[in-house]
Specification:
Blueprint lengths: L4 E5 L16 H9 L3 E5 L12 H5 L6 H11 L4 E4 L23 H17 L3 E4 L1 H9 L4 E2 L2 H5 L15 E5 L4 H6 L2 E5 L6 E2 L6 E6 L5 E6 L5 E4 L10 H11 L3
Parallel strand pairs: 1-2, 1-3, 3-4, 4-11
Antiparallel strand pairs: 5-8, 6-7, 6-9, 9-10, 10-11
Length: 255
């Protein structure tokens, strides 16, 4: 029996060595493999030369990157599911807002590619799991917005940008009756935390299914029958815990 092919979108790290690379953290790869999937790395192939969206593009959004869309269509033909990985911050121009001073932008090529990838997968009803920035991407792709810097909105009672992401750090409250609850259980779940942004206005067809004690959105899911789930924490860093690896198993073998 063929293993389900699970796409993982790649990051383009900030320039440093002078050699550009596309990468995916190994924890994502291992989590997909341990859950029974075959990881497939998806480099952000776009027509963009690099850089970031600016003020002019806020007033006049860039045209659809047809090259990225065409590449995404080819990927869709070979994939059975998709994990949208985390990273730096998506350009707020994607949801019509100016940039916050604390927003640390992804490479524009990745931003454009990721939006095209997420929209294509969601439109097809492909199983999609978004992790951290990947959860935020799902929301952006469906017309939602982000809180660009959580301390501005909820204060700093919970240090969401904690660096020890291998261990649980705070609790989230999972909504009973949700798809997420069916996977990890309803009620309180301890999770790690490595983010300073979160879902703001919820995108079309999505609902909030977990929050932190300070009110920050910790998980969203689609209201339809397709598997569409975004979690703000990093389950790949805690895959030794059954309920965290279960998120990947549910993606790969959706019921």
């Amino acid at each position: 029996m063929r293993q389900p092919r699970i796409g993982l979108n790649c990051d383009i790290p900030a320039a440093g060595s002078g050699v550009e690379i596309a990468k995916v953290n190994w924890d994502y790869i291992r989590s997909v493999a341990e859950a029974g999937g075959l990881p497939v790395l998806l480099p952000p192939l776009t027509a963009a030369a690099g850089g970031h969206c600016g003020v002019d593009q806020l007033r006049n959004p860039p045209p659809v990157d047809t090259h990225a869309r065409n590449v995404v269509e080819e990927f869709m033909c070979i994939l059975d599911g998709l994990v949208l990985t985390g990273g730096r911050d998506y350009d707020p121009a994607l949801y019509g807002e100016p940039r916050h001073p604390m927003t640390n932008l992804l490479d524009e090529r990745r931003s454009r590619f990721d939006v095209a990838l997420a929209r294509a997968a969601i439109a097809r009803g492909m199983p999609v799991l978004g992790i951290c920035g990947g959860a935020q991407l799902i929301n952006i792709a469906l017309g939602g917005t982000l809180i660009q810097h959580l301390p501005d909105a909820v204060g700093d009672a919970i240090a969401h940008q904690w660096t020890g992401a291998d261990e649980p750090f705070h609790e989230v409250e999972v909504v009973p009756g949700s798809r997420l609850a069916a996977i990890v259980g309803a009620g309180r779940l301890r999770v790690n935390s490595s983010h300073h942004q979160a879902v703001g206005r919820v995108g079309e067809g999505l609902r909030i299914v977990a929050r932190a004690p300070d009110g920050a959105v910790e998980a969203i899911e689609g209201m339809g029958t397709a598997f569409l789930l975004g979690v703000q924490w990093h389950p790949e860093r805690m895959r030794g815990q059954a309920e965290q690896l279960a998120l990947f198993r549910a993606l790969i073998q959706p019921k």
